Amino acid sequence: MATVLESLTVPRSSALLPSVTRSHIAASSVSSLSARRLPLFRGLKVNQSFTARSLGSVTSSSRLARRGGLVVCEAQDTAIEVPAITDENWQSLVLESESPVLVEFWAPWCGPCRMIHPIIDELAKQYVGKLKCYKVNTDESSSIATRYGIRSIPTVIIFKNGEKKDTVIGAVPKSTLTTSIEKFL
Fold first, then answer.
1. Cis peptide preceding 154, ω within 30 of 0
2. One of 79, 107, 110, 169 is an active-site residue; which one?
3. Does the annotation count 133 as an active-site position?
4. What is the helix, strand, coil percentage profile of the chain, to 5?
5. Taking the alpha carbons of 26, 28, 31, 33 in that order, is the dihedral positive or negative?
6. CA–CA gap between residue 146 and residue 114 (Å, rounded)
7. Bigger pLDDT: 73 or 179?
8. What is the largest CA-CA distance in the chain?
9. CA 67, CA 72: separation in Å to the nearest integer?
């Protein structure tokens, strides 16, 4: 069991007080400490009676019982996997495509790239049949990135009839990408 120590701060002027008064202050401080009780820590589980008592009327104990410990992510079932492109299939999938193509240039170590991935997934789902969406890992296919002058990631390029039509650099909102896409549909 852990022991809690309490510090006592005595102002400088009290140095002039008699020693009896100083010992009385220290004794009262220790006795008040022993009267306090701290909540019992039991690993990662929180004692429900302590939580309900500390949160007061905001949380009822029935709500605590309903919460449970499960975390459910429903977004995994709704996203469309945007296929990756390599040097081998770049020509056939992007440059020879009949429909407009959105290509995201990214890298696994790039934080803003991870922020924009769900947006690209949503756009792929929203424009299915009208627009093809792909992604290029610039670490694995650096020749494609060099050919199109990719100097910062994430970069999104829209191609139509094999030609580069528009470029969006950085982690931008979905509305910015949608405006750019709508120009070429």
1. yes
2. 110
3. no
4. 45, 15, 40
5. negative
6. 21
7. 179
8. 96
9. 12
